[in-house]
Amino acid sequence: MVTFVDRVTLHLSAGKGGNGCVSVRREKFKPLAGPDGGNGGHGGDVVLVADPQVTTLLSYHHSPHRSAGNGGFGMGDNRSGAAGEHLELPVPVGTVVKDETGEILVDMVTPGIRFVVAPGGQGGLGNAALANPKRKAPGFALLGTPGWQGDVQLELKTVADVALVGFPSAGKSSLIAAISAARPKIADYPFTTLHPNLGVVQAGDARFTVADVPGLIEGASDGKGLGLEFLRHVERCTALVHVLDCATLEPGRDPISDLDVILAELAAYPVPEGQVPLLERPQLIALNKLDVPEAKDLADLVRPELEARGYRVFEISTVSHDGLRQLTFALGELVEQHRIEAATAPAPERIVIRPQGAEKDFEIRVEGGTYGTYYRILGTKPLRWVQQTDFQNEEAVGFLADRLEKLGVEDELFRVGAQAGSTVVIGPGDGIIFDWHPSLSSAAELMTAPRGTDPRLDLNPRRTTSQRRDRYHERMDAKAEARAELESERLAARGDGWEDEDES
């Protein structure tokens, strides 16, 4: 069975940024000629592109997992890693992109529009880029950050000027095939059309697109039949053409009753906010299959009632092409009028883009649990900095502490009541947990220590040679003092004994 897919969920993974390199340039007579570690490459983005040549989301239904390329690692001699390859995903024009919660991210109604749905990770800086007059030879580099990972929903809403609506087997597919170059599947059984078909119609100087919407039945707006899945494709159409079957053999059906059912379903379907309700848009009536003798008699009978309701009625035959020219020219006039009104309409509300720094870079939340109160730091910069930190390198951890202090995290922790030794979590969920020590706020650039170490952390319990020598001398001096004290006590005791013997 052929299935039309107009709603899929994509599982996306952007590329990871490459790690920076720690390297020292070595030249003749200059064993330590300065840092030359290169930067890591940025991870590849996942980009959605509105492509007019793509008409369905079926390929993403079968392969929903898509990933972009990772960035390369930095290398010595100031060689940067290669950037990850971007992944471009073509989608039909009219695709609505939503996040996991259903919030609309972008409506891709313009051909060629590009939207970065999953940005790649940032490449880490090498130690050459981290060097400055105060930190001339960094013994660490920044790690690459992971790319965006998550799910997005794609929902296709056909972009067309005119929509053909009606009951199944009313002749909509035959009509679009007769007035355009579209070649949809045509058969005399219900639900032949399983997905909207688009056709381009030329009527004089007017050129417009027509969408053949799959057949609607009573209860379609409540999910009955196939109608609910395709009513969304009518949302973007300027005008509607009700294709009524005047040669139906089903009992209890006639053009008037079919029209009333379709109107009720269109009225029950809620359109997005800001759009014109379906029944308030221009509508025409096409009485189809007039090549059948009985259909002609029925059309003459129902036409006065339809015109009394205010509809323009056209009697057509997709077999003999009678009435098609008049119908297409009438639709061309409606479309051209709508385009003129849209061109003179006031410009949409401007989108305000907030510059970086206008909003707070981070926030601190005081949270409590079974094990007491802890402080959670949320923000783009702190989270990215933690992802870039190599926690096996003391100097890198000290560099992170300096960045957080310069951002104002230390002062904000004091303000919310944090004390030395308080538990701090950076990032949502489990995050990075550590004990906060305000003493780390001093500048590491002013300290002298071997590369890759930070004396403020004291994470290495091993003592230096001078420290061991001083400790040895302290022990020797203590032992010498103890021996001297014992010797003085012994001599004092011996002197008292001699005095007793002399007296006796």
Chart the SSEs and their pairings:
Elements (H helix, E strand, L loop, with lengths): L6 E7 L32 E5 L7 H5 L2 E3 L19 E5 L3 E4 L5 E5 L5 E5 L8 H4 L18 E8 L5 E4 L6 H8 L17 E7 L2 E7 L14 H5 L7 E7 L9 H14 L14 E6 L4 H16 L3 E4 L8 H21 L18 E7 L2 E7 L1 H8 L6 H14 L1 H7 L7 E4 L5 E4 L29 H39 L1
Parallel strand pairs: 1-3, 2-4, 9-11, 9-12, 12-13, 13-14, 16-17
Antiparallel strand pairs: 1-8, 2-7, 5-6, 5-8, 10-11, 15-16, 17-18
Family: Belongs to the TRAFAC class OBG-HflX-like GTPase superfamily. OBG GTPase family.
Subunit structure: Monomer.
Protein name: GTPase Obg
Keywords:
single chain, 504 residues, alpha/beta, Spo0b-associated Gtp-binding Protein, Chain: A, Rossmann fold, GMP Synthetase, Chain A, domain 3, 3 domains, six-stranded mixed beta sheet, five-stranded mixed beta sheet, elongated
Strand content: 15-25%
Look at the helices and sheets and give the structural class.
Answer: alpha/beta
General form: elongated
Level of helix content? 25-40%
Largest sheet composition: 6 strands, mixed
Elements, N to C (H/E): EEHEEEEEHEEHEEHEHEHEHEEHHHEEH
Radius of gyration: 39 Å
Describe the structure in your own words.
The protein is of the alpha/beta class. It folds into three domains: 1-156, Spo0b-associated Gtp-binding Protein, Chain: A (Distorted Sandwich), CATH 2.70.210.12; 162-344, P-loop containing nucleotide triphosphate hydrolases (Rossmann fold), CATH 3.40.50; 364-446, GMP Synthetase, Chain A, domain 3 (2-Layer Sandwich). 28% of the residues lie in helices and 20% in strands. The chain is built from eleven helices and 18 strands. The strands form four sheets. It has a six-stranded mixed β-sheet with strand order 10-11-9-12-13-14, with helices on both faces. The longest helix is centred in the C-terminal third of the chain and has 39 residues, at 465-503. The termini are far apart. The model is unreliable at 189-194, 219-228 and 440-448 (pLDDT under 50). Monomer. Residues 448-504 are annotated as: Disordered. Residues 354-438 form the OCT domain.
